Amino acid sequence: MPNITVLDDATINQIAAGEVIERPSAVVKELVENSIDAGATVITVEIKEGGISFIRITDNGSGIEESDMPYVFLRHSTSKIRTADDLLRIKSLGFRGEALSSIAAVSQIELVTKTAESFTGIRYLIDGGVEKGMEHIGCPSGTTFIIKNLFFNTPARRKFLKSAQTEAGYIQDFMERIAISHSEISFKFIMNGQNKLHTSGNNNQKDVIYHIYGRDITSHLVSVKAEGDSFSLSGFIAKPAISRGNRNYENYFINGRFVRNPIIYKAIEEAFKPYIMLHRYPFTALMLTIDSELIDVNVHPAKLEVRFKNGEELYSFLYKSLKNTLEGRDLITEIYLTKEEEKQKISQKLPEPFETKRRQEEGFGLIKEAIKETEIGRLKSYVDSAPSFVKENMDRDHTLLEESTYRKDVYEAARNVLDRRSAEEQVQAELPDTVGQPVQNVVPEAGNVSAGETDSVYEQMAFLSREAVTEHKIIGQLFNTYWIIEYGDKMFLIDQHAAHEKVLYERIVKKLREKEHFSQQLMPPIILSLNLREKEALIKNLDFLTQAGFEFEEFGGKEYAVRAVPGDLYNLVQYDVLIEIIDGLTEEGYNNTPEIILDKIASMSCKAAVKGSHKLSVEEARALIEQLLSLENPYNCPHGRPVIISMSKYEVERKFKRIV
Length: 660
What we know:
This protein is of the alpha+beta class. The chain is 37% helix and 21% strand. GO terms for molecular function: ATP binding; ATP hydrolysis activity; ATP-dependent DNA damage sensor activity; mismatched DNA binding.
């Protein structure tokens, strides 16, 4: 009897399912992607018990022809490609023809489908890969998959699943990402009978981000748009004030497909490096469009990995696009009220309906006189920009009322009229009749000026200009570390150590880039003992280090003598610092460029900067501020910490309960 046997189809399908269908979220992913490929504009996903016992996915796509039904659950049967050459030009999300057969092998499936041309639909039942029946049925056009008892016939696989709540979390993560990448489709996600996600499908990516992440992130969004020879980029990034300790906020999509790729996340993080702290990661929602012939998505059955034909070109394009977007932006961190204070304000009791009507009639006339025509015009533009999905969800959390930008803008004009009115009542009274939506419907537009800034952006831009320096009113030094400056209706706090560090950093980098440096001889020289890898990295980058002002000389064996260093670094260079620079050259890996070497060298400016708890005179502080404000990016130190934060007069008065 031979030792080698040919496995039966059922066993083969269960083995294949282990690659494609790892957990319930993989089932949802494959079926939702099929719905998108079928041209659906509305997709509903419903799960119970984390998708382990029940998954239902309904779409209004093209449906499946009756003649195709015998092939739907066969391995490697697909409508997406015909030949191997098609793999070079993949435009659909699915193409391998493995998903449906793998799902059918480990679950009980009910498929209901109908094309627009058919008079009736088809109901097809399959249990563990075995057909149980097919019949004609009345149903709307589109396709519905019902998946029950996932892994019922493979208990070894089922026991490795996590809790139902955790598995549901994986599904929700996928639904949120697919909604961001396909804002033209209306997605609805129902978990155990509760709506968890519902997007409008109005093709506005910012609406989706607002719906998923809320106002805090949406108000910090900056639009990104760039075109290259082989790539195009669009979407949003958040200002550096929004970050977290892992990469969960990094959403990027290639041709509508969510992927994970080190080239992309390294480019993103390198662009944000001057703006955020170490081990913090930015928020992104980026759409990359790449010629399908330049990428290979046929790398892994889950299709989460891709390979690029020109990875270095993509890295450079993405890095420069994000860097250019961030440069020149107003990135001062503004301090707002805490959520607890906002909730406390909202909890005030609303007046009775007749009292609300009376105040509306009384207050509107007064406010019309108080608010200038330009203010009214701006209010109308805010309301006009309200996203449609919010208008469909009027019962959204009332905390949005107090957080709205309109509430903040209208305060100064109306404070004496409606000082103690609750947020909802005040908004309804102040809006003109032609503007019929309450303020909770307003989501500020993200353009060149990100949402939530409004008037303050002009004040901050003025504060950061040389012309405004003479108008700064320096109040004093706080804790011998922070300088308080009054300008306009804002209070600015500057961290003297971070500010001086940034000034030194920019000065050194500028001299190195423009080759304005001079070398300072070391007496005696510093002797470095290098291993083989460190020696190789030094030799590889020796020309650039020499141009930067360093002078290295072989000293015999594994040792090198450092005889000169850049003049600006003379007092900072020690043995450990030089070893740290060379270690950095060996660690960078993929994009070991002069830019990285510059960062390694210039980061030593921290050691030379004036320290916190060091008392400065007003003249020294003013000189430091003038130097700081002449920089391209004065907002963050080289380590990503904020240099300047601000707080408006409005927020200060709220803290002191002068505004209630």
